Amino acid sequence: MTPKPSCSLYRWSLSPHTRKWPPSTRLPLDRRRHISAYGYTQAKALVYPKHGSPTDVLTLHTHSISPPHSKLLTLRTLAAPLNPADINQIQGTYPTAPPFTSEFGTAQPSAVPGNEACFEVLSAGSGCKDVSKGDWVIPRRTGLGSWRTHVQIDEDRVMKIDKDGLTAEQVATVSVNPVTAYRMLKDFTALREGDWFIQNGANSGVGRAAVQLGKMWGYKSICVIRKREGAEGEALRKEMLELGATEVVTDEEIMAKDFGERVKGWTNGGREQLKLGLNCVGGDAGMAMAKVLDAGGTMVTYGAMSKSPMRVGAGMLIFKDLRFVGFWVSKWGDSLPDEKKRTIDEVLGLIRDGKFKDVPMVEVPWSWETKKEELLDAVQGTLEGFRKGKGIFKFGDT
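Given the sequence above, the corresponding structure tokens read:
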């Protein structure tokens, strides 16, 4: 029989008007209502027993977590973003996915979606050496399953983060988008100060990170954004320029016949090198960027939002000697965890010093009383176009 949680602690409720957590909800670690009278941690998780549309297969499941022993940690989730890859895993269209397991006590073996998160250590087994109560940690590898209030996991599967000067949201969103941008700018071609790169999806999390890192390192950028009408489009263009972009154009502009001449003008008649393209769209829009790369340049593809193939002309390979490569940050990070940690620490250092701006976020409050429908609405919103920011679960009193 599942132990029932203690009701002795007062629970704050979320204000529907402010949609923010009152400061007083941050109770001391040992006073929050998540430990039952029997020492078990009561947890809730979004789970799915099969692949399909998130609104069809996701349910909110309550279960218990026993006290940790040996090298186990019991963690409370502070923040967990909603990434497109998380949705693809639920749909069954992503190359990797969290495992289906019976550990939650569900009627069928189920999986928990979510790859990124910032966790707080509630308790640690006697064999844990590097992590202790109150520390913040993030997943060491992908596939952990972060859309849940609590998780119990081996110490070796997380990495400790210096939380000083950082928010949980900043820590939770560091390991995918900023790291992707960092590695693509550094690992595929030797850019020097004054060199150019071009990217589509420039106002995405990866794009914003690339703009800022490139500016810090002395690179110039051509940033492609989807066309927006009127004041909204002008506001986004201005925002990207303020973030560090050198030139900002729309996806329609890069398809125009005179786009190559415009690029030539920006690059001082072609004397300044345009050696790198960062592509998350694919299709004809991706190839429009490839056409303006200098001979010997590299196109790095890390997404395929258009779901259309890229048709590479033979001339690009024979006469321009362009390279077309792919980058998957999950595979890179899983194979090079130490380098991943070093990159994360460097980016967090920039955030801490005020040199790197957060991506716009839309917080989705998650407390013990939050209904499944509220969470699924946020998940569904991740699939929609023109969003105001990255969706992120912000956990309150759980």
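Residues 9 and 42 are 14 Å apart (CA to CA). Try to locate this feature in the token string yourself.
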